[in-house]
Design a protein that fits this description.
This protein is an alpha+beta fold and 180 residues long. It folds into two domains: 30 residues; 119 residues, Glutaredoxin (3-Layer(aba) Sandwich), CATH 3.40.30.10. It has five helices and eight strands; from the N terminus they run H-E-E-H-E-H-E-E-H-E-H-E-E. Strands 1, 2, 3, 4, 5, 6, 7 and 8 form an eight-stranded mixed sheet that branches. It is elongated.
């Protein structure tokens, strides 16, 4: 009897350890990516939302930024600093640098953020706007805090992170953004 109880107890302990190790490995695999300039993020899926058409469609980031540089601003509608950035960028749909036009895209870091549409509308931000599908996408982008302002070169290549307090007319884009 004692051996059966001991075997059952040992089996339970082994199963718990295996589950714990599997979960630890899964979480470790979700650590944020350290994006370096030149890293392609074009295959990440974003959900596309339009103020006029509330239904969401999925598209690859590639489709949103395929032929030109783009400033992606990742936000959370409950984030105080995100509101300050949105106030600073109110109504800005594109930024002009020395004759070059760089569009601005806003992306909610939450897939089901009910306040995101209201946030976009309140600050007159460009529509369509985007949302991420989940934690995996945030980790792929290296996003653990927000707001994040990223400059993506053509074809969804990460070019660099802009300072959070950079005004819409703040910094010239790199040469990769200029037509050849």
């Amino acid at each position: 009897m004692r051996t059966k109880v001991g075997m059952v107890l040992l089996t339970v302990i082994i199963v718990v350890q295996v589950v714990f190790l599997a979960e630890k490995r899964r979480v470790r695999n979700l650590e944020p990516t350290r994006l370096a300039p030149g890293t392609s993020v074009k295959n990440i899926q974003l959900s596309v939302h339009d103020i006029q058409e509330p239904t969401a469609d999925f598209e690859r980031l590639w489709d949103a930024v395929s032929d030109r540089c783009t400033i992606m601003i990742f936000f959370d509608s409950d984030c105080t600093f995100c509101r300050q950035v949105a106030e600073e960028w109110r109504g800005v749909r594109e930024v002009k640098y020395e004759g070059l036009t760089v569009p601005v895209k806003w992306t909610s870091v939450w897939a089901n953020d009910l306040g995101a549409a209201q946030f976009v509308e309140q600050y007159g931000l460009p529509s369509p706007w985007y949302s991420m599908r989940g934690r995996e996408d945030r980790m792929a982008f290296g996003i653990t805090e927000w707001p994040k302002l990223y400059l993506l070169a053509p074809e969804g290549v990460f070019e660099g992170e802009l300072a959070r307090d950079v005004p819409p007319d703040g910094t010239a884009p790199p040469d990769r953004c200029r037509p050849s």
